[in-house]
Amino acid sequence: MPDRELMQAAACLPPQLREVLRRWEGAEHPACEEIRLRAGCPMTVVTPQGEIPTKTRPLTVPQIQDTIDRACDYSAHTFAANISQGYLTLPGGHRIGICGDAVWDGGAIKSFRSISSVNIRIARQIHGAASEQMVQTICQNKMLRSTLIYSPPRFGKTTLLRDLIFRLSEMGYRIGVADERAELAALYRGQPQFQIGLHTDVITGCPKAEAAMMLVKTMSPDAVVLDEITSERDVQAVLYCSRCGAAVFASAHASGLADFQIRPLYRSVWESQAFSLYYEIRRDRTVQLRKENKEEAAC
Questions:
Q1: The dihedral of CA 195, 234, 275, 221: what is its sign?
Q2: How far apart are CA 180 and CA 228, in angstroms?
Q3: Distances (CA, A) of 74 to 12, 80, 129, 148
Q4: 227-230 LR contacts (CB < 8 Å, sep 24+)
Q5: φ and ψ at 4, to 5 degrees?
Q6: Bridge pairing between strands 200-204 and 95-105
Q7: In 192-273, which ranges are continuous DSSP H helix?
Q8: I want to staple 96 with a disulfide (CB 3.0 to 4.6 A). Which of 88, 146, 244, 285 is the partner?
Q9: For the segment 16-54, what is each residue's pLDDT rounded down to a tens digit?
């Protein structure tokens, strides 16, 4: 049987491409991570072992556009805001990244004249990604401790954060999720596509910094979650939330703790001790506690 998540993600593909994946012997392997379509190239599938070409003819721009049309239920205007940011969220939490001939207006991408390549990222919820020991360390004396997770791209930071959201929410903690690009909860028409727990509230569709601060002001969360600190505004949101009595859970791109410490963007985060715990996801996907601040950041 083909992998269920793979075929769910492939539902937006034209029928002939879906059939190739259905027959592809690698489809039974649960580690398939992405489906890549590029104009002029055969469809490829990304696995931990690399990017593997499938036996398809070189794809055309109309075929790639057909994929986007299917993903939008042939109502592209409904998803115009997401497309302008280069992505679409699919049922099941899968995501399409978009590249092509962009329309640049007023200092921002407004749309795409044509789409030349897409990346369908296959989403998987992995219960148990956060170990029991990690959860107990975070919930010291029933108080949540702010935690940063870092690694290079595609090591599983979002998957780990998502499992922490679910575990902590099911334990009774109120969790506010600033899900700017719909990666953690993957709201699709208002419905989370992942299990995120009974006590979780989500804001999506706006910058994560603004969403995080709004959650603190309106939802009284025990913790606020941001996926990927990428701007100075995100840093300020982390500091704001931590000083308002909410724990903060976030992720960052870094190859190691030393790399994190020397990056200018993260310097104020490190010096403020806004995070009590620093976890590194290693190349073998194991999670290691690398730094623990004994004195908690002031709230």
A1: negative
A2: 10
A3: 11, 12, 36, 40
A4: 227/157, 227/158, 227/161, 227/179, 227/180, 227/181, 227/183, 227/184, 227/251, 228/157, 228/252, 228/253, 229/265, 229/266, 229/269, 230/265
A5: -60, -50
A6: unpaired
A7: 208-219, 232-243, 257-262, 267-272
A8: 88
A9: 999 998 887 655 554 788 999 999 999 999 988 889 999
